[in-house]
Amino acid sequence: MEEYLFYVTISCLTIASPGPGVLLTLTNSLTYGLKNALPGILGVALGMGGISIIAASSVGAIISSSAWMMNIVKLLGAAYLIYLGLKLLRSKPKLQNTLNDITHSESLPSVTARFRQVFFVSMLNPKPIVFFMALFPQFIKADQPFAPQFTLLASTFCTLVFLIHFVYGYITTSARQKISLGRGFLIINRVGGIVFICFSAALILSINVNLIINSV
After folding, report:
1. pLDDT value at 8 more than 80
2. 3-state secondary structure string, the chain?
3. By mean pLDDT, which of 88-97, 138-147, 158-167, 202-211 is the weakest?
4. Tens digits of residue pLDDT in 192-205
5. Per the UniProt record, which residue ranges are transmembrane (predicted)?
6. Chain segment 31-51, per-residue pLDDT in tens
7. Domain boundaries, the chain
């Protein structure tokens, strides 16, 4: 039980730390409200579930041990983050008068689009693969069946992802009441777009570092 609680603590600290998924949850919650941000929050959780399965398989071992495979995943992730960043920078929220108008605006993406956007951000982030491959073995006992232990750890992590992002969304949605509408959301989109592009730049720089190291 103590080991499990330690795992939960590490997971909570990791999930709560700023990253592309957290930023998308904050942006969607500010723009559309908690209810409309839920598909994205579910996308983050299920994306982490998919990553955990990959990490537990031979595919995860291949990706984490191959610099070129890791670079490909990073490049795809960087490209998608640039796309999201430019999309936010180009967006021009209308100066609506009420939060209700914003929530029901025609610009609200479909449920599928909101889910898919955050799901892909999670799946194209290579860091969780390495994280899971480093973390899971510390809490899986060799003398016990692997599947039940993996299922418990992975499902716990996904549940924590959903709950923590839900809390982020709730707090952010509450803060919307204090934000000047229209121009406030425009500033939020601009800042979010810049941060996404910075995340992608960090990924690209890490790719270059790996290539230099491998060529030496």
Report:
1. yes
2. CHHHHHHHHHHHHHHHCCCHHHHHHHHHHHHHCHHHHHHHHHHHHHHHHHHHHHHHCHHHHHHHHCHHHHHHHHHHHHHHHHHHHHHHHHCCCCCCCCHHHHHCCCCCCCHHHHHHHHHHHHHCCCHHHHHHHHHHHHHCCCCCCHHHHHHHHHHHHHHHHHHHHHHHHHHHHHHHHHCCCCHHHHHHHHHHHHHHHHHHHHHHHHHHHHHHHHHC
3. 88-97
4. 678 778 877 877 77
5. 6-26, 38-62, 68-86, 118-140, 152-171, 191-213
6. 888 899 999 999 999 999 988
7. 22-215
Q: Residue 13 is which amino acid?
A: L
Distance CA 40, CA 22 (A): 10
Instruction: Confirm if 24 and 40 have CB atoms less than 8 A apart.
Output: yes
